[in-house]
Write the structure tokens for this entry.
Amino acid sequence: MRFVLPISVISRTPKNKSIVFWEASKFPYYKMKEIGENITTLAGYWALKNKGDELSEWQNVGLWVMPEKELVEDSKVSRAEGVTIWDSSFLSYIPEEQERMVDTAIAKYEEVFGEIPECVGSYHFPPEVINHLEGYGVKVAIGYCWEQSLAGLTNIGSPLFPYYPSKRNSLRPVKSRDILLVGYASRDPIHGYLIDPTSFSSCVDDIYDRRPGHRDPIATPEDMGYLNRLYAGYMEQERWNRYTYFMLINETDVFDIGYRSAVAGVNREIFSEQVEYIKKANGNFTQLAEFARQVKENCKDMVSRIVWRDILDEKGRVMWYSDTAMRVCIFLDTMSIWDIRNYALELPYGPRYSAVLDKRENRYLLCEKNFEFITNEKDRIELKEGTVSFREGALEIDMEIEYRPIGIRIRKIKGGLVLDSGWTFAFLEDAEYSNGMIKGPFVLKCMESVEF
């Protein structure tokens, strides 16, 4: 199953005074309608309050909750005189105020549409907010900056596929729940992890307005080669999963003449080119609530794998594997382990779920040997030198291999080694440690506890 989720976010930040804001907000909806396809619109409080009569005639509208000036004032929370913190969203408010803003926004949505929204989105979702939304009967939440630095997008945290969240930490996957969480799909699972990430979202304005220092070419309506390779890479993931998905996110505030006159019109052209290419490539445009239903019905194990080749042909190939107990990132060309998150631990909530290993923080396992990749199956990778197989909570490296631990404490215990970051850990069963090197084969496990 291939899903492409076109999502339009109508949200007005405090700085945006554009007189054509609403015109830009309507463009994605009517463009998709023109080609006979669906788009999910997530309407912020400003849109519900000022354009509710028109919105009530639209299909597939969800709720976007951010501290817009109107919502802050109508909720009577502490920053009624002006919003100074934007991307951090709910994180800058106390839990009682978070719930009050949610209540106010849902009441306005119900006034416009006569029902509770199925879909709710925001930049950040603390567990208290997720729990509160689930109490209303919301079925799917979509978040932008889960487990990321507050300055922008970083693909270093939340699972790369939808998941059910823990009630104590919305970044920790669990086996089942009524509400499903969907993160913005990172544009590039290699560069969104390794490089300064602020433009590696799937937002159309980010694709156009590249920040200085990024190595990928600027996309223009005349040159869509980078984007087309990106879509092809996501569609290929169906080989290893029951489904694959990619998002086309359009945040009206910066989509067209929001802050920057330079993007006026160009993003509209790029968006039109995007949807035309995906339609020709047999991408299945799907609205968010239907996507969530399909995931719940067809993906009971909630395991996801991404095998991704660097579309700039500079880094090589990575594999991301995640389930309800762990997430692991392996650089397949050398089998270096770049990232481990132990989801079996119920850690306190923060904007990032603590990592055992994280290459961006210079904490990883380095292998300096190149391996010959043969094939990837649904539950294992075959290399000329051996295999890598995975099951829930465990990854087995069945080959002779040596790792140099970078920035991580190694503890020897009975039966293997512990990777101890100081606040979270992973266990390497049957691994040996001598002369500063970890030696395999071994089984990497993430669990709730281990004696060391």
Observations:
- Residues 325-445 form one domain.
- The chain is about 25% helix and 30% strand.
- The longest strand covers residues 394-406.
